[in-house]
Amino acid sequence: MVTTRRGTEVKSPAPPKKVEGKTRVTSAAQKPTQPKEAEFTWSLILFMIGTFVVFVTYLGVLFYTLPKLEDDVRAGVIKALKPPHKLEDAIVLRDAISEYAADHAFHTALVLASVYVFAQTFAIPGTLTLSLLSGALFGFYKGIALVVGINLIGSSFCFFINTKVGRSIAYRVWPSKVRAFQREVEKRRSSMTNYIFFLRVTPFLPNTFINVASPVVNVPYPAFVIGTVTGTFPNNFMAVKAGMKLSEITSISEMYDPWTLGFFVAIGFLVLLPALLAPAPNFAEEEEEEPDAKKAE
Q1: Percent of the chain, pLDDT > 90?
Q2: How far, in Å, CA of 185 to CA of 181, rounded?
Q3: Is a pLDDT exceeding 90 seen at residue 249?
Q4: Cβ–Cβ contacts within 10 Å for residue 138, how many?
Q5: Entry pTM
Q6: Which residues, if any, are the signal sequence (predicted)?
Q7: Are the beta carbons of 162 and 212 closer than 8 angstroms?
Q8: Which residues are registered as beta bridge partners of 238?
Q9: Measured in Å, how far apart are the chain's first and last C-alpha atoms?
Q10: Annotated domain spans of the chain
Q11: Which of 22-36, 169-183, 242-256, 279-293 has the lowest mean pLDDT?
Q12: DSSP symbols for the chain
């Protein structure tokens, strides 16, 4: 019993119960389990640095083993090792390597695919411009096949790398948003592929967040890859199509002609109709509850 300042007696809380040498604290309400934050360790840091170094080394070796590079073409391919960020960069690259690509299509496709996978794996901007180059160098059918294939490989690399390090990154950059994403994923376990597709074609979440957080909240790998490849296909389709007339367009916005936009809006509406009829995902960041000990104070 505890006596307060007013003279009243209040029953003190019962001590924790011990079960087989372990202390068990009873609580009135059990909270649902949430993914726990992972600490950055030297092993994770070395893994990230090592993976990056391996990719860069591979790109360097690939470049120096390319056949019969003239000096001017070599300078253009060196620029290709840095993912282009602007339309002007893509036009310069196309002019530099178009003649080389005609004689060495396989090696050119390998360089382009390697840079694309590198950019997608480490969330480096420039993949849309690389899709433009695919259309400019290889035409529509070969270009779209190349982009879909390397998109599949790049998203797979991204998923498995973030399986290792994504938890440490996600909970430092987007702590509340990851918890909200976890709740939305749990609601849609039965239709996860459609849900990832839905996120890729809508502006609810940025692609970088989806890439990093999906392994953290246990999105299945097949659903992630299929949803990513199909969800990014409309943009890649238009980029490859626009790449075929790269010398004619002056800005990225010109590749979205009304007929192409209307076609994909109609297809997207039919595919997303079930999701549109359902309540919109709630990714509002919530304030974290204070521990019970602090509330008691």
Answers
A1: 11
A2: 6
A3: no
A4: 22
A5: 0.65
A6: none
A7: yes
A8: none
A9: 19
A10: 42-286
A11: 22-36
A12: -EE-TTS-EEPPPPPPEEETTEEE---SSPPPP-PPPPPP-HHHHHHHHHHHHHHHHHHHHHHHT-SS--HHHHHHHHHHTS---SHHHHHHHHHHHHHHHHH-HHHHHHHHHHHHHHHHHTT-S-HHHHHHHHHHHHHHHHHHHHHHHHHHHHHHHHHHHHHHHHHHHHHHH-HHHHHHHHHHHHHTGGGHHHHHHHHHHSSSS-HHHHHHHHHHTT--HHHHHHHHHHHHHHHHHHHHHHHTTTTT-SSGGGG--HHHHHHHHHHHHHHHHHHHHSPPP-----PPPPPHHHHH-
- At 57, the pLDDT band (50, 70, 90 cuts) reads very high
Instruction: Look at residue 190 in the predicted model and tell me its pLDDT.
Output: 84
Structure tokens at 147: 């982009």
Query: Is residue 112 a contact partner of residue 146, using CB atoms and an 8 Å limit?
Result: yes
Both tokens of residue 123?
Answer: 């969330």
Handedness of CA 242, 271, 213, 219 (dihedral sign): negative
Place of tokens 């967040």: 209
Q: What are residue 9's DSSP bridge partners?
A: 3
Structural tokens at position 159: 């998923």
Q: Look up residue 131 and give its amino acid.
A: S
Q: Which of 119, 122, 72, 107 is nearest to 93 (CA)?
A: 72
- Count how many residues are written for the chain: 297
- C-alpha R_g of the chain: 26
Give the pLDDT band (50/70/90) at residue 283. Answer: low
d(CA 156, CA 148): 12
Is residue 296 very low, low, confident or very high in pLDDT (cuts 50, 70, 90)?
A: very low
Q: What is the rounded CA–CA span in Å between residue 297 and residue 284? A: 29
